[in-house]
Structures are given as structure tokens and as C-alpha cells.
Amino acid sequence: MTNSIQEFEDAEVFFVIGSNTTEQHPMIASRIIQAVRQKAAKLIVADPREIKLAKFAALHLRHKMGSDVALLNGLMHIILEEGWEAKEFIKDRTENYEPLKAVVATYTPDRVAEITGVDKDSLRKASEIYAKAKRSMIIYAMGITQHVAGTDNVKSCANLAMLTGHVGYPSTGVNPLRGQNNVQGACDMGALPNVYSGYQSVTDPKIREVFEKEWGVNDLNDKAGLTLTEMIDAAERGDIKALYVMGENPVVSDPDARHVSRALRKLDLLVVQDIFLTETARLAHVVLPAASFAEKMGTFTNTERRVQLSRQAIAPLGGTLPDWKIICEISSRVGYPMNYDSPIEILDEINRVTPSYAGITYSRLKGSWGLSWPCPNEDHPGTLFLHKDQFARGLGAFDAREYIPPAEVPDEEYPFTLITGRVGFQFHTGTMTRKISILEREAPKAVLEMNSKDARRLRVTDGSIVTVESRRGELHLPVQIKQDIPESMVFSTFHYSEKNINELTICAIDPVAKIPEFSCAVSIRRI
């Protein structure tokens, strides 16, 4: 997030796109609702479904799935046509403005209405509300990133914020909401195939030299590795022989799940490190039982870049070890001794080699609610919002994107669009939440949400069992009739391994970020 969660209370406008916030990030949703109710903030929701948050919205844009770039370009077209752009901000703090103008000029309200299904009046109202406010926030989640055009979607959100000057100030900005706890911290610490900690490129020889000196080696690889989706494909081809999975359950969470299972079964060695025996762990040759968060000390970095200390509450259960100890033991056995005494010593190393974390030391975290990076030294208070006065790269670069359709669109054989997501009572693949009886009582099984008009055409009622089929497989699911979902679209959740909706989804990926698209075309027939 460019801004902090506490700044939500002073925002004048929230533009929420690709985020079912009440279900996925309920604490942040409560901040938005509070600002709307108590401070008369205006809320714009862009989502094909009438999600709960839309009930508090001044405007709900029900655009077609996968048409985000066209929608965002259409808003920018109107802003430029009406002269609502931030002229001084654009002149002083950005570049590549003319190419952006040329692209969005073609996204007229008529064309955008045809692509997105959003009427021209609503497009104009949304443009005016967002552009004219002094403090407008864009908030998005995986409904923006998990598309073949995910990178284009993110770039377009940044374009809209820069065009209106809504970035680099309090209570504005572009604010992505992370999908799981500490996923921000994992990325910050280099759990990506092309960077070390702090997003320092593995291809930069000066950066490699810093890490080689710290780690006492002289031959760190200078090539970017594979992403998760690329690893799975490589495993199925036989190009990868071994895989080490930590705290992840790709057999349930990844698209085209049968393909994932086939790939993992082809490995010579699959190692899974987790706190429960997940569906992925059941395929493993070796399972390493890890300690839970309450059994170890460390830090979490949340969605607002805030690093917080997590203290150990109980001793690790018998037969388990904290993740860092397991990694140290394995590393030492394969020839590179790791002799850290504690997470404090590891954090000391992070401070030395990660400029954005240099001032986030154990002694400071111990007596605080946390610090937000960048925090370059121990005298720095941490950074509530990014890009004050100038962008990290100097000038903010507009990067205009053209609309491209989803990888798989409905046709005569598969006439419905399936989208997937979550419910508030379950978390991710259900590894933890499905062991809790109260949560299971509230959301015990996968259902297929469907519009009442589609249900009548298929001659099904609430609770009827239907076959949902894609080009990759089929499932039998009970129908739940909802008025908040458009015709020709159906929705289900991926929490349930016994009815894994990701057996149907397509493994098409964004060419840049390599993130898969979790939607596809399906047919539905009554059983």
C-alpha cells in the first residue's frame, strides 16, 4: 500500500475495485464503512457482483469480468475530456503523459459501455467523484491481479491516481490489499525468483556483491528463477526434479488443480513444511512439521508495510521446530552452515543488507506497535505514505495499457463465466479454519451461486445439484440462488478440497507477473 490503514478515516473517496473487502479484509472494510457512515466519505465499488460493501456505495459499477483496463481507461478519458486532471502534478512529477492521452482518447464512453456493460452516466459520475475530491483512495485486491491482464490492471490503477494527483499525499494513493498474513513480509524478504530482500535485483552485480560478502560466498547466481506457476509446469515436463514447499497448499489453491497434482507426482522428491498435513503434504516424500506462529518469535509485515514483532506464547509442540531452525538444519547438512542463534540475529542481518529495513531493529520493535518501511536508519520514524515530494524512481511514469479480453470467454459450448473467491468464515484452503466447528457450521461446503433468471432457465432451485463443467473437468455442486450476481455468471469458493473449484479453472497467466487467471468458461446442467 502506498498509504497506511489509519489514513482511511480521513479519505473523502474510496474507489474499491477487484476486492470483496468485507469477506477478504473485514477489518479494513470496517474502516471504509465507518468513514462512509460517520464522515460522509463517498464509496465507489467496481465489481460484477453486488458484494456487501456495495450496499454502502454511492455508486456501484457492475462491469463485466476482465474489463478493468477498459473501465479505468474510460474514467481517464472522461477526466481528460472534462479538464479534471491534475495539471501541475502531471507537469512537475510525471512523464510519458502524451502516450497515455493518445491511448485513453480511444476509450470513449460509448466504446467503454459496450466493453464493460457500465452505462455512460455512471462512468461520468464515477470520474467526477474520484477526480474532484481532494483525498481519493484506490483500493484493490486479487480481483485486479489474478488475470492475464493483471499487470495492465495495476498499471492502469497507477495511471488513474497520477492523472488526478491522488498519490504522494495522506489519505490518497494506490492501496493493494494482500491476500494472506505476512505475504507482504515474504515478498519483502526475497521470496520471489528475481530479487533478494528489499526487492534488490539478483541481476545487479553490486547488489550481489553485498550479499556475497555477508554470506561469505563468491558465486551467487545472477539469473532470475521460476515463479510458482512456472515451477509446476516445469515439474510436469520433468525439468524440475525436486520441490520444497513451505506453508503453501497448491493442490487446492492453484488453478487447474489436477494438473498441479500430476506435476507433483512426477517429482523425484517433494518436501512439504507445514503445521498440518495438507492435501499437498499428503503427496510429499518428506513432511517437515513446523511450529505455528504462537510457538516462535519473529516478525510479520502487514499490508500497510508495517513490521510488527510476534512474541512466542508457548513452547513448540513435540517433534516440531520453527521454520528458521528447519532451514538452518537443512542448509548445514547440504554444505552451507547456518549458525544463527535466534530470530534477533537474523533480523540484525536483514538490517545490514536491506536498506528499506535498516532502521527496523529488534530493540525498536520491542517497544512499539511496529514500523513501516522504508525506514533507512534507527532515527527514522518509519514511512506512513510513499512518494511524498517525488516518486522512488524520480518522475512517475505513465504506462498506458490497451484492453485485452480474458483468456477464456463464454461460447455456445460453455456459456457461463465462473469466478472464484472467498467467504468470510473460511480462510484460503481451509487448512486451519475447517478444523473449527463454529466456522464449519456457518460455511460447511462449496456452493454455486447463480442468478435467479439463470436458475429458472436451467429449471433448478435452491439446493438443486448441478454439474459444472469446464474444459478441464467437472464438479457436482448445490445451487444457491442469489440476486447479487449477474446473469450468465456463477461464483464459487476454493476453500473446499473435497469439491475443489480449482479443478475447473484455467492455468493462463499474466505474461509479466506470471500470476494465473482464476476464472473460466463453464457449462451447467441439471442432474
Distance between the termini: 46 Å
The number of distinct β-strands equals 21
CATH architecture of the largest domain: 3-Layer(aba) Sandwich
Proportion of residues in extended strands:
15-25%
Number of helices: 19
Count of separate structural domains: 3
Strand order of the largest sheet: 16-20-17-19-18-21
- The CATH class assignment of the largest domain is Alpha Beta
Catalogue the unreliable spans: none
Estimated radius of gyration: 24 Å
In CATH terms, what is the fold-level topology of the largest domain?
A: Rossmann fold
State the secondary-structure class. alpha/beta
Backbone shape: globular
Question: Whole-number average pLDDT?
Answer: 95
Structure description:
The protein is of the alpha/beta class. It has three domains: 5-177, 3-Layer(aba) Sandwich (Dimethylsulfoxide Reductase, domain 2); 183-372, Rossmann fold (3-Layer(aba) Sandwich); 416-526, Beta Barrel (Barwin-like endoglucanases). It has helices at 21-24, 26-39, 68-82, 87-93, 97-104, 109-116, 120-132, 142-145, 150-163, 183-188, 205-215, 228-237, 250-253, 257-265, 323-333, 343-353, 362-366, 437-442, 452-458, and strands spanning 13-17, 42-46, 59-61, 94-95, 136-140, 174-176, 195-196, 200-201, 242-246, 269-274, 286-289, 298-301, 306-310, 371-372, 396-397, 416-421, 448-450, 465-470, 473-481, 489-493, 519-526. Strands 16-20-17-19-18-21 form a six-stranded mixed barrel. Strands 3-2-1-5-6 form a five-stranded parallel sheet, with helices on both faces. A hairpin with a 2-residue loop joins strand 18 (465-470) and strand 19 (473-481). Helix 3 runs antiparallel to helix 6 (109-116), helix 3 packs across helix 7 (120-132) and helix 12 packs across helix 14. The longest helix is centred in the first third of the chain and has 15 residues, at 68-82. The protein is globular, with a radius of gyration of 24 Å. The relative contact order is 0.13.
